[in-house]
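Q: Structure tokens for this one, please.
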Amino acid sequence: MNELKILLANDQNRFRPSETLKGVAGWRLPAAPRSADVRLFWYTRGKGTEDVGVINRFAFEQPQAEEGRPFQFVLPEEPYSFSGRLVSLIWALELVVEPGSQTTRVEFTLSPTGEEILLHADAQAHARSR
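A: Here is the predicted structure, written as tokens:
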């Protein structure tokens, strides 16, 4: 049975720019993988063309069939996590194990407050204040 997981330190999933995101990537496979790495990226979801920006990658040396390995990333200044009526920007980490392109993903929020920016809420508040 193949099992992949990503655990974030202190179960934290809200971050601010320049903070250090720490965690452990774990896998249980029938044989040692050729490669295993964690990727830090953002992607858009919604109407129109979906975009992806891979920011960094942490490759694990000589992965074994079953183990857990720590990783960490210093988060960038931007872009911020946001949700609008037509599109959202989501930050995530993805553990990728080869061969077979096996993956697992965990999403998190990146913004100055640690909260997702709700664009439609700002527009509604602005309309009410007029």
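A few notes: The chain has one domain: 3-128. The CA atoms of residues 13 and 108 lie 5 Å apart.
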